[in-house]
Amino acid sequence: MNRAARIAAVVLLVLAGCAYEPGPLSERLSGAESGTVWFESVDAYDFTTDGAAPPIAVEGDLTIPDPHNGAAVVLSHGSAGVGALHRGWARTLQGWGYATLTLDHFSPREVINTLHAQVRVTEQQMALDILNAVRLLESHPDVAPGSVRVMGWSKGGTAGLLAAFDPVQRLAGFEPPALAAAVLFYPYCNFRGEIPAETPITILHGTADDWTPIDFCRTFMRDLSAAGAAVTLTEIEDGLHGFDNWTARRGERPRSVTIREASPRCTLRLAPDLTATRSLDGTFGVASFDARRAFLEACAERGVTYGGSPEARATVEVSVRAALDP
Q1: Which long-range contacts does 12-18 make (Cβ < 8 Å, 24+ apart)?
Q2: pLDDT digit string (tens) for 266-291?
Q3: Which of 50, 85, 265, 284 could share a disulfide with 44, CB 3.0–4.6 Å?
Q4: Residue (of 252, 127, 269, 101) closest to 191 by Cα position
Q5: SS3 state of residue 181
Q6: Are residues 76 and 101 in contact, defined by beta-carbon separation less than 8 angstroms?
Q7: 207 in helix, strand or coil?
Q8: Are the CB atoms for 196 and 169 separated by under 8 Å?
């Protein structure tokens, strides 16, 4: 056995012995909790499978600041998992008076990241986690009803976008609007469909982003606006993916997966009730692991750039604060 094979074998053995074990589930928050909490979500790979999907225990890091403004924000990470970017924003939000619940969508599903394999955890799974986190936060005696917002980044931004849609909120058992606001950093938006959303949506996106191109969001926002959604796009000039990771060096990430093709086979149409998602030409669906993998194999490519734009920090923070309190 060569060295690479030995290392792979050791990694597999380590992973096999480290199955995720959640703590006790919280159905309601008493007000005394802080730090890691666990709550029940629905592990629906796609919205069409929700009725038969198993439950899953999802974790989040909860902080109620002092002073507290009575509102809360659910934070949803991107493909790399929870990191310093999200913890930094959580501290900023707490400084503004918001309670925060920073989700970890991946560890309960025994996934480290999806940078090279986006099919392992879907944005639909993450969207339902977000809405079940809203339900938990609204049980807190210090969180006002209807005051929970979501902030999401990249994959978590797409999840937050889905969670803002009325049909998804109804699927999760809410009467819209379940979210007071959705603030989304550089989500993947290569969708078409006029989907209603009572939740105000703000997207912050860099004009130089080659990981989740901004043009997709410009197009999709026209569809959402036509359905009556209140959608705002804040464009960060020359911003890359991760522009709000202020200290991150700008550089290439050659192995990360993206879709830049806007053809009918690689653009997904969302049904109005989101029970079906297929490419515009009908070639691909994404309702199962194998179907989603076939879609990515046909449309995805590798190689992206990433990096912070510290010069935009003041503008971004002003925009975020205004969007959280529309």
Answers
A1: 15/110
A2: 999 999 988 889 999 999 999 999 99
A3: 50
A4: 269
A5: strand
A6: no
A7: coil
A8: no
Distance CA 207, CA 257 (A): 19
d(CA 200, CA 210): 26
Structure tokens at 297: 């194999």
Q: Which two tokens stand for residue 74?
A: 């659910």
pLDDT per residue as tens digits for the range 179-232: 999 999 999 999 999 999 999 999 999 999 999 999 999 999 999 999 999 999
How far is it, in rounded angstroms, from Cα 36 to Cα 38? 7
pTM listed for this prediction: 0.93
CA separation, residue 227 to residues 11, 198, 221 (Å): 49, 10, 10
CA distance 205 to 184: 8
Lookup: tokens for 118: 């986006």
Strands of the 191-192 sheet, one edge to the other: 191-192, 268-270, 277-279
Sign of the dihedral through C-alpha 206, 209, 211, 213:
positive
